[in-house]
């Protein structure tokens, strides 16, 4: 008998190996030290900025490897980390506060390889360097927003049913409703009792008052939901920043840990992550004089707001709609080629906007942008102090009944529009957050970790190669080729997976799969030896050795693969990194050990009709 694969199977093995090698190739080119220049609020990156950057670097004698301008940002590639640091300091002083100059590492992948999606493997925080944030959530603000929403809901329910009341006020986390008469008290009791989830009803008929008391369980759920929603929104914002495989998880009762691999300058990250931004839409008060309000005679039911860029505007207290209903926000340009933000609302928000504008066509409506910024101080009870900043970013006359899609104009520069759209698209934080701890892992420490990890992998790899070559002779060389191919395939597959990141635990997973891959070859080769000792011919021994070893290898690898999938499902951070490389390594090692080595053995010995001896 002869051992040989059909042509299509040999071609398939060759295609898989070459495909994996192609996408592993970008890792040989490494990364360039670079600085990235983007605009802050009030600034804009233009071609004049590009020319200014080029002049500044040339006058300082700093050599560049390239400069690109794309998506409103400038990326300058430099020769070394010393040039990178010098260029950053120079550009920070030259460009001023309107621009953020961030350290970066830009892939040096050739354009032809990048065109087909070839990218180097992304490294985690412990290998590449990056930043670690510990953030604290202001729970008092979250509860305050809950109370305000509850107050509006109670008032709306009483008005809809024409129940007269003298006041609906908050008392801590509870809502106190005072009614005008005993009749109103009885009607309100029927409307409010057991109508609001998480609130119990307490009555006082002697004073015609009803108190809605927040339950302890609902209070705990509200706190937990505030953390969970902030984690989800922070993850969305990190995705918008383009950071691969971030770590975002809860710590304790009111804190969140965020780790961003590869981010060396924290200005942009802190600006986006820490911003608590949302919108409110309000009608402009056209029934009262603005100048009288500015002079101090603000009418009941209205408020004065500052206008971005200067001036003030008198708006009604009633909020038409908040940013909680926004499901998408994108940047565009109006008829005058000025930046605008296109808003898409959910179905509930669309109905509210339609109801509010149906009878108010021709009235001006203002868009209020709200941010909570940490003051750096603490309150008397030790909590973080925040400053609420409200600005009118646009005032537009309602030309027609609005629905789920509309636009806001007058948002400033294109960078302002992009930042606003990003924050609204990612969602509004349910409560402000403060960065209470910040740590930076430098690239030099990351490089040391890479060297240590690669040393461990290569040492184990070389020792295995030497053992297999000596113990199994020519068949050992076949196993060594399979091990090298397995390593290339692991790197290639991880480079192709969007968001996959290599960490130190991931390196440990690769080292473990090296042992598992050679273990499969040992099982196969030992079965071939047993067949030869049983008197089989070399060709029969090869065939039966691979066939009989398959079930054993499959059982061992499938159980390990299941374990890796469970680790990935329930683990976080570094555990996920280990599970990913382990799972990929198991699949590629089974391919190289069972199919790859069989193809090589068949080509080397399988076609020899008078084979009498195997070098095993």
Automatic annotation (TrEMBL):
Family the entry assigns: Belongs to the SecD/SecF family. SecD subfamily.
Domain annotation SecD export protein N-terminal TM: ranges: 2-103
Quaternary assembly: Forms a complex with SecF. Part of the essential Sec protein translocation apparatus which comprises SecA, SecYEG and auxiliary proteins SecDF-YajC and YidC.
UniProt name for this protein: Protein translocase subunit SecD
Every SecDF P1 head subdomain domain range: 309-431
GO molecular function: protein-transporting ATPase activity
Membrane topology: Multi-pass membrane protein
Species of provenance: Aliidiomarina sanyensis
Compartment(s) of residence: Cell membrane
């Amino acid at each position: 008998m002869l051992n040989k694969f059909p042509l299509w199977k040999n071609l398939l093995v060759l295609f898989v190996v070459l495909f994996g090698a192609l996408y592993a190739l970008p890792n040989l080119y490494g990364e360039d030290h670079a600085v990235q220049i983007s605009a802050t609020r009030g600034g804009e990156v233009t071609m004049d900025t590009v020319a200014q950057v080029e002049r500044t670097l040339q006058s300082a004698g700093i050599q560049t490897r390239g400069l690109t301008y794309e998506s409103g940002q400038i990326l300058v590639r430099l020769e070394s980390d010393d040039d990178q640091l010098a260029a950053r300091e120079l550009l920070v002083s030259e460009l001023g506060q309107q621009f953020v100059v961030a350290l970066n590492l830009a892939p040096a992948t050739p354009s032809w390889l990048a065109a087909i999606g070839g990218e180097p493997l992304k490294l985690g925080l412990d290998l590449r360097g990056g930043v670690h944030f510990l953030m604290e959530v202001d729970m008092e603000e979250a509860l305050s927003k809950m109370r305000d929403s509850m107050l509006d809901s109670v008032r709306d329910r009483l008005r809809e049913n024409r129940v007269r009341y003298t006041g609906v006020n908050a008392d801590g986390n509870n809502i106190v409703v005072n009614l005008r008469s005993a009749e109103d008290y009885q009607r309100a009791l029927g409307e409010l009792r057991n109508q609001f989830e998480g609130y119990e009803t307490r009555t006082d008929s002697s004073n015609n008052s009803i108190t809605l008391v927040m339950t302890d369980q609902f209070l705990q759920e509200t706190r937990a939901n505030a953390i969970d929603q902030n984690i989800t929104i922070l993850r969305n914002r990190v995705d918008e920043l383009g950071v691969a495989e971030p770590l975002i998880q809860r710590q304790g009762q009111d804190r969140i840990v965020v780790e961003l691999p590869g981010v060396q300058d924290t200005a942009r990250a802190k600006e986006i992550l820490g911003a608590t931004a949302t919108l409110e839409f309000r009608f402009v008060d056209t029934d009262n004089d603005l100048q009288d309000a500015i002079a101090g005679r603000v009418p009941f039911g209205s408020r004065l707001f500052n206008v971005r860029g200067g001036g003030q505007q008198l708006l009604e207290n009633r909020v038409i709609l908040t940013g909680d209903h926004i499901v998408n926000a994108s940047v565009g340009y109006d008829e005058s080629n000025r930046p605008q933000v296109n808003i898409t609302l959910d179905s509930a928000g669309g109905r509210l906007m339609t109801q509010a504008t149906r009878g108010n066509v021709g009235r001006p409506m203002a868009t209020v942008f709200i941010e909570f910024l940490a003051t750096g101080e603490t309150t008397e009870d030790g909590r973080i102090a925040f400053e609420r900043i409200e600005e009118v970013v646009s005032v537009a006359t309602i030309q027609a009944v609005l629905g789920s899609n509309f636009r806001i104009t007058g948002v400033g520069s294109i960078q302002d529009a992009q930042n606003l759209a990003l924050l609204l698209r990612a969602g509004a934080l349910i409560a402000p957050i403060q960065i209470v701890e910040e740590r930076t892992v430098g690239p030099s420490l990351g490089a040391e970790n890479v060297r240590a990890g690669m040393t461990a992998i290569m040492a184990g790899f070389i020792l295995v190669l030497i053992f297999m070559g000596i113990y199994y002779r020519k068949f050992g060389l076949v196993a060594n080729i399979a091990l090298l191919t397995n390593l290339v395939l692991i790197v290639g597959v991880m480079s192709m997976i969007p968001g996959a990141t290599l960490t130190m635990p991931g390196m440990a997973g690769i080292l473990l799969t090296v042992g598992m891959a050679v273990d499969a070859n040992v099982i196969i080769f030992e079965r071939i030896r047993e067949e030869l000792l049983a008197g089989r011919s070399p060709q029969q021994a090869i065939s039966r050795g691979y066939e009989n070893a398959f079930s054993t290898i499959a059982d061992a690898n499938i159980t390990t693969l299941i374990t890796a999938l469970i680790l990935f499902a329930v683990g976080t951070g570094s555990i996920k990194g280990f599970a990913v490389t382990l799972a990929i390594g198991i699949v590629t090692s089974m391919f190289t050990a069972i199919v790859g080595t069989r193809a090589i053995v068949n080509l080397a010995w399988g076609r020899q009709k008078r084979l009498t001896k195997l070098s095993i």
